[in-house]
Amino acid sequence: MIPSFWRKIKYRYDLIGTHCKKCGRYYYPPRNLCPRCRRKGEIEEVKLPEKGKVLSYTVVYERCPVVIALIELENGTKILSQLSCKPEEVKDGMEVVRVFRKYGETSDDGIIYYGTKFVPCY
Amino acid sequence: MRVAIIGSGCSRFGELWEKGFREIYLEAGLKAIEDAGIEGKEINALYVGNMSAGMFLGQEHVAALIADYAGLAELNIPAVRVEAADASGAVAFREAYLAIKSGLFDVVVAAGVEKVTDVSDQSKIVSSAADQEWECFFGANLASLYALIAKIHMKKFGGGEEDLALIAVKNHKNAVNNPIAHYRREISVEDVLSSPYVAEPLKVLDSAPISDGAAALVLASEEFARRVCDDPVFVEACCQASDYLALQSREDLTSMKAVVKASRKAYKRAGIDSKDVDVAELHDVFTIAEIIQYEDLGFCKKGEGYKLIREGITCLNGDIPVNTSGGLKACGHAAGASGIRQIAEIVDQLRGKAGKRQVDAEIGLSLSVGGTGATAVVTVLRR
Amino acid sequence: MIGICSYGTYVPIYRIKIDEIARVWGEDCDAIKNGLGIYEKSVPDEDEDATTIAVEAAREAVSRVKIDPKEIGAIFVGSESHPYAVKPTSTIVGEALGVGNNYFTADLEFACKAGTAAMQICYAMVKAEMIKFGLAIGTDTAQAKPGDALEYSAAAGGAAFLIGKDPIAEIEATYSYTSDTPDFWRRELQPYPSHGGRFTGEPAYFRHIVNAAKGLMEKFGYSSKDFKYAVFHQPNAKFPLKVAKMLGFGGEQTSQSLLVSVIGNTYSASSLIGLCAVLDVAEPDERILLVSFGSGAGSDAFSIRVTDRIIDFPREPKVWDKVSKKIYIDYALYLKHRGKIRI
Question: Which residues of chain B are within 8 Å of residue A59 when distances are taken between CB atoms?
């Protein structure tokens, strides 16, 4: 797990996605190949907008309620992420902004997984 | 050349504490061989659908293991394990179908098996069908992904949690008469609505159980089938399609594009229309999936899936009975076995062997989906 | 001219009231509020720690100036609650900000003054022309043993300063006073700090702050009247007011920076968030005295003069406005947020 987490740190800590110069589409998670243009496409890394709106959300009831949301960023990129707030604060269409948060840890003596989450624009 | 199914067999689905991986598939396999009335030495090859023996049991190389404990080791036939999450069985069936269609083999066995109750934390393994790095890392599991889909669908087309409950109620009712079913008891709409949320708006009783189970089918060339079998069922089409693995990559979440594509190809190949389908087994891993699949298969217009269940059209005595077996919801969902088990139900229906679940059918359809829809297999059968 | 080119703060949105903590331990809440001058304190969410707070504060600081993060040549993060005992917080901050791979960095620890120590290091490195910009951060999610007096004040927050040339506030002078005074400590493998009770006052907090402030003023020729604002470390609301009085400062000089009453003691960030609140309103040529205090013990004093560049500097949202947005939680949820419920 550590190497696979480490390899994607850049994209997890910050909203770095990819953009196909050929068709203009944005991708998060980043892709090495544009699925529309394939080998004719031209992929570059870009910083994605920090704000977006909630397209759909759900609350997963495991140990603690966790809010999972599908978010549309200001440039239209769709991303799946976690909302760091109480379930009762969430509404469809709500404006959200990215934050830097902890996702978990392998164990008490393991590494800590940090990454991007979203919170309501208070 | 047509491909026929000449034998089918299923183990019981559920929590099979007394039986291990090897016992379960042997039970299904022997039933299928006996049903086909063939001998082991007539089998040319074996295709097995299995989602995750590696994680559930720590056992890989399961195709050879199955061939071995099915008594086929001395025959040294090829055994192939196929994985496509919970569409594994259906994809294995398609590989078996193609093998005969190619003219290379006369008789092959397509089987599916999953043994899940030897471990306690199954939900993480089941969720490995989703994107581990970009869905599950964020805390999403399979239920939550279907919940996101359900919310978008309900918002756009106006269905409610009661409509979802009706799917579970119908499927449980059908399972009462299915001797292999995981849950052979009826439930009410109130039971569903009062069960706790797994991922809003999906509740415990909107979700298929994670079951042990195995199923097997014997496929043969038409020529062979005519020789040994009085009531072969013909595979008119078996088409597969793929889509983006993760939800965020898909344009429209109210529809499963792979289901639309696979079914249209299958209808064309079989020379039928969606209206010609008399009975269907769909992939109701969560209740919302069955409603979306009504629409994607063309049983109704987009957005009108709720009507089909409200008006009873998909009930046992409706125009298109769906999930007469009880579906994944009540017959049970043994990931790698379900795709084969669904086809076995259609085979039973077309051969008139479905007992109290029997409906009048000439053409049947089975749809199996992997994960949230990145794999779809549509099989059209005719008696 | 070297000084602060930008600043950013972050205080978690959750608060617990002193009344709620006192209720659980059966203590007299009015006596505690009067004694400490603290009414509520910030509480981090379950997914927040000193690192996430540092990143949020640093992102605000960097976003307020149009610089390429790769121009940041050093990052020093001061905290007494670094999430790892071994493995730096600062590399996580560096990666999250996208500063690249060529920067000087290390984590610092000096109780509540590690953040000002980070500022001194960055200042020196800019002055030595080793770096163009340095990022100095003070961040903490302060731990307190349930039921201990510290529980009423130990809070969470962070502040980040971009140190470089052409600043919005020039660091005119800095001076430190340090001694070996064990007033507050935490031993290896211990979850909570221990303290010397009243020993933390006179021989620790007051002695070090007074000597650092006096030393700075004597060495560089200032008097209390030269400063429009004075910012002191805020373990509670009483100590900074008392030390201000001892040094000849009045309430009008200290009130803008006194956030402790509403957010609690944010440890390494305490005096720094106070400084940010002052920078939010300060005008060109106004002078600010900043004196931190870290147990163990030491104080770093700074004379900071606001420059004309502050006029065009984006200062919204202001610290006082940010901390006014809050969500109250009860003691049970507080325990859950702080990871004190073992599962």
Answer: 197, 199-200
Contact: A80, B249; criterion CB under 8 Å: no
Instruction: From the options 1.20.1250.20, 2.160.20.80, 3.40.47.10, 2.60.40.420, give the CATH code of C2-168+313-337.
Output: 3.40.47.10
Cβ <8 Å between C343 and A100: no
Q: How far apart are CA B4 and CA B6, in angstroms?
A: 6
A121–chain C Cβ distance below 8 A for any pair: no
Contact A81 B138 (CB under 8 A): yes
Look at phi and psi of residue B352 and say left if phi exceeds 0, alpha if psi is from -120 to 50, else beta. Answer: left
ipTM: 0.95
Sign, CA torsion C246/C250/C253/C259 = positive
Confidence class for position C133, pLDDT limits 50, 70, 90 = very high
Counting every residue, how long is chain B?
A: 383
Spot the catalytic one: C82, C195, C208, C233.
C233
Task: Determine what percent of chain C is predicted with pLDDT higher than 90.
Answer: 97
The residue of chain B nearest to residue A81, with distances taken between CA atoms, is B138
Using the Cβ of A61 and the Cβ atoms of chain C, whether some distance falls under 8 Å is answered with no
What does the alpha-carbon distance between residue C204 and residue C181 come to, in Å, rounded to a whole number? 7
Evaluate if residue B316 carries a pLDDT over 80.
yes
Q: Which domains does chain B have, with CATH numbers?
A: 3-121+211-233 (3.40.47.10), 129-207+235-382 (3.40.47.10)
- Tokens at B254, concatenated: 């109210």
Q: Tell me the DSSP string of A26-95.
A: EESS--SSBTTTBTT--EEEEEPPSEEEEEEEEEEESSSEEEEEEEEETTS-EEEEEE-S-GGG--TT-E
Mean pLDDT, to the nearest integer, of C95-123? 98
Q: What is the pLDDT of residue A106?
A: 80
pTM of the model as a whole: 0.94
Amino acid present at B300: C
Please judge whether A70 and B253 are an interchain contact, meaning their C-beta atoms are less than 8 angstroms apart. yes
Contact list, A29 vs chain B (CB under 8 Å): 133-134, 246
Tell me, yes or no, if B197 comes closer than 8 A to chain A by beta carbon. yes
Which entry of C48, C56, C60, C80 is annotated as an active-site residue? Answer: C80
- Of these residues, C48, C60, C82, C112, which one is catalytic? C112
User: pLDDT at residue A62 above 80?
Assistant: no
Is residue C112 among the annotated active site residues?
yes
**Residue-wise burial string across A18-47, b where 16 or more C-beta atoms lie within 10 A, e elsewhere:** bbbeeeebbbbbbeeebeeeeeebebeebe
Helix then strand then coil, in percent of chain C rounded to 5, is: 40, 25, 35
Domain C169-311 = CATH 3.10.150.10: no
Q: Do A60 and B247 touch (CB under 8 A)?
A: no
d(C-alpha A34, C-alpha C86), whole Å: 41
Sign of CA dihedral B299, B302, B306, B307: negative
Instruction: Provide the pLDDT confidence category of residue C207 given band limits of 50, 70 and 90.
Output: very high
Q: Do chains B and C touch (3 or more CB pairs under 8 A)?
A: no
